[in-house]
């Protein structure tokens, strides 16, 4: 059977266009002329007999065929990095970076202490942490941009193995002395009487909240939205606003007493999980595999 091979330069140029969103941006990052990038993309499209990008005035948007090729290219890069690290280990110069994608809150609070604890026993291991919206973490794992994902999830995901799952309680967060603080638990319609501070539309939590509000025939009209949790908490501290988030996300504010929370009496909101995820079929580099075992055996702080 004839073997099919992609040129490594073409894949590298292609992935750079995917990451930057334009030929000019890719050329600047690669330090080559734009025509060289365009030739590589055109060559790939001709070979595959499919369009890899939709061309728009503001940039290049990857097609479904392009997404499939990007996933392949990232897997090739990940496999090459793993092989290089294994060879380096045989030669006694084992240094490897473990790539972690983590959701806001759980990533910034729970993961860095675990990195430090692991490195105390494995000083040659390096960590790279990318903090994202929960829904984007899984995509990073699926596309080989991350070895391990730590995120909130509400459903099974294609190509994803769940190594650990714990409850992810969604709570209403407010300032001390807020009128809603007198209740032991809250229902979603109660919150609409107060200014709402919510994640931006499109985030995993926001989609869940919109789904829950539709069940109650309630419209969530946020007075303030942001993709940064600390900005939301500062807004909530300033008045009678309420926000909704996983309890762990607001743990620093809650433990310090700056904010308080009340549980949500809602089965849909509370069926989510904090998950440690890997790709179901892609082997992990040795250092990532060892850290995964460490993380699975020490899940304190993840819930």
Automatic annotation (TrEMBL):
**Single GO MF descriptor:** DNA binding
Q: Could you tell me the superkingdom of the organism this chain comes from?
A: Bacteria
Q: Does the keyword Iron-sulfur apply?
A: no
Q: Which family does it belong to?
A: Belongs to the LysR transcriptional regulatory family.
- Domain annotation HTH lysR-type: ranges: 6-63
**Per its record, how is this protein called by name?**
LysR substrate binding domain protein
Q: Which regions span the lipid bilayer?
A: none
Keywords per UniProt: DNA-binding, Transcription, Transcription regulation
Might you report a single GO cellular component term?
Answer: cytosol
What's one Pfam family the UniProt record gives for this protein? Answer: LysR_substrate
């Amino acid at each position: 059977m004839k073997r099919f091979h992609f040129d490594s330069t073409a894949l590298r140029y292609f992935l750079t266009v995917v990451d930057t969103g334009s030929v000019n941006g890719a050329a600047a990052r690669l330090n080559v002329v734009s025509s060289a990038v365009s030739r590589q993309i055109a060559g790939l499209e001709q070979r595959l007999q499919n369009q890899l990008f939709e061309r728009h005035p503001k940039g290049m948007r990857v097609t479904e065929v392009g997404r499939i090729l990007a996933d392949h290219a990232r897997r090739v890069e990940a496999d090459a990095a793993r092989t290089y690290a294994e060879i380096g280990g045989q030669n006694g110069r084992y240094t490897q970076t473990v790539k972690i994608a983590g959701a806001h809150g759980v990533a910034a609070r729970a993961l860095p202490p675990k990195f430090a604890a692991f490195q105390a026993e494995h000083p040659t291991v390096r960590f790279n942490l990318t903090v994202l919206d929960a829904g984007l973490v899984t995509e990073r794992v699926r596309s080989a941009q991350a070895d391990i994902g730590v995120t909130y999830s509400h459903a099974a995901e294609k190509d994803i193995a769940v190594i650990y799952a714990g409850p992810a309680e969604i709570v209403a967060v407010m300032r001390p002395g807020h009128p809603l603080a007198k209740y032991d638990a809250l229902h979603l319609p109660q919150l609409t009487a107060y200014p709402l501070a919510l994640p931006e539309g499109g985030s995993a939590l926001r989609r869940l909240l919109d789904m829950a509000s539709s069940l109650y025939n309630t419209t969530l009209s946020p007075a303030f939205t942001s993709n940064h949790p600390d900005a939301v908490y500062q807004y909530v501290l300033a008045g009678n606003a309420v926000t909704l988030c996983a309890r762990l996300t607001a743990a620093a504010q809650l433990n310090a007493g700056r904010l308080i929370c009340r549980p949500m009496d809602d089965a849909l909101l509370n069926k989510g999980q904090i998950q440690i995820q890997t790709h179901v079929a892609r082997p992990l580099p040795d250092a990532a595999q060892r850290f995964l075992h460490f993380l699975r055996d020490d899940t304190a702080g993840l819930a």
